[in-house]
Specification:
Strand 1 and strand 2 form a beta hairpin. By secondary structure, the chain is α/β, with parallel strands linked by helices. The N and C termini lie far apart (57 Å). It is built from 12 helices and 7 strands. The protein is globular, with a radius of gyration of 24 Å. Helix 5 runs antiparallel to helix 6 and helix 10 runs antiparallel to helix 11.
């Protein structure tokens, strides 16, 4: 089937579309329900739409197109940026970007968009609020320490800070309980299976389910590790540049922080992870390098368990069952 490739550059209030291999000029539409419906009604036959992932600004349009049975791909903005650099593009406007996105989609044929379940969107919103409240509480705690260093701290100000910290702490506990209840309601089996892996906590299980979209957005542990930025990054060129840059750190630092805490437990209590850590350190690898290897091992265990649909079972348990 021959498709009509359409690039879409999305902003907060509107978006610009460009139909590749056509004489028509780029068209602008309001990024609202009315504007999206107007855009869909004007689409040519056999359209394939391409857009950058711009968070909340792109998800409504992408979902509307998907529900109408229209092919749509949501692309990492970094890929579009690198594609523009290969073409030595100097100008950057909404119209130029729409043209570029359409060209990229035509040449690369990216993966089709599939919306994540509604409850994952709910969990994402709760997680965003949770992270913001944690930052606010940390700022208040620091402010409280500062006030206490003054010669004559105001008691009402101190009480106000302490009261706000207590309120936020209660809100955090309430939100965490809501997230657990929501996850138990929609994917209880998967949620509890993840926690059978030594080192994976309740908070880590929630984070993995949210980030991976119930493990439907990734095909392998390697792909997921690259997405959250814990893959080793090697920097080599010729004879002069021979460097190891550590991990890529692409992705959410919040997810990596949670995984790091899991890793600190896994290399002590997870038999396979402990064996890996001990072997690497015995061979002279630095402790941080060994911990990154353990983190990737944990991700492989998670994907292996998700693929099998069974609870985690250590090698010791397997040997015992065979006997």
């Amino acid at each position: 089937m021959k498709f009509t490739y359409i690039g879409i550059d999305i902003a907060k209030d509107d978006f610009v579309s460009f139909v590749r291999f056509s004489n028509s000029k780029p068209s602008a539409f309001k990024n609202s329900t009315k504007g999206i419906n107007k855009f869909i009604n004007k689409l040519p036959d056999n359209p394939w739409c391409f857009m950058e992932a711009t968070g909340v600004y792109s998800i409504r349009l992408a979902t509307a197109l998907y529900e109408k049975g229209i092919r749509v791909s949501v692309i990492n903005p970094l890929q579009i940026k690198r594609f523009a650099q290969t073409k030595l593009k100097r100008a950057k406007t909404d119209r130029v970007d729409a043209h570029l996105i359409a060209e990229y989609g035509d040449k690369m044929k990216p993966q089709l968009f599939t919306p994540i379940p509604h409850f994952i969107h709910q969990l994402q919103q709760k997680r965003a609020l949770l992270r913001q409240l944690i930052k606010t509480r940390s700022a208040l705690k620091n402010q409280l320490k500062t006030f206490k260093q003054l010669p004559n701290p105001d008691e009402q100000t101190l009480n106000g800070c302490q009261s706000m910290i207590q309120t936020i702490t209660e809100q955090l506990e309430n939100i965490e309980l809501q997230m657990v209840d929501l996850t138990n309601l929609h994917c209880k089996k998967l949620f509890h299976q993840l926690q059978t892996i030594p080192g994976i906590s309740t908070k880590a299980s929630l984070e993995l389910i949210i980030v991976s979209g119930m493990f439907k957005n990734f095909y392998s542990a390697k792909q997921f590790s690259a997405f959250i930025g814990i893959c080793p990054s090697i920097n080599e060129s010729g004879k002069s540049i021979r460097g190891y840059r550590g991990i890529s750190r692409i992705g959410s630092s919040y997810t990596r922080a949670i995984l790091y805490l899991c890793t600190m437990n896994a290399f002590r209590y997870n038999a396979q992870c402990k064996a890996l850590y001990d072997r690497l350190t015995a061979n002279g690898k630095p402790g941080k390098v060994a911990l990154i290897a353990v983190a990737n091992k944990l991700i492989r265990q998670v994907f292996g368990m998700v693929k099998s649909g069974e609870n985690y079972c250590s090698q010791t348990d397997l040997n015992t069952s065979k006997r």
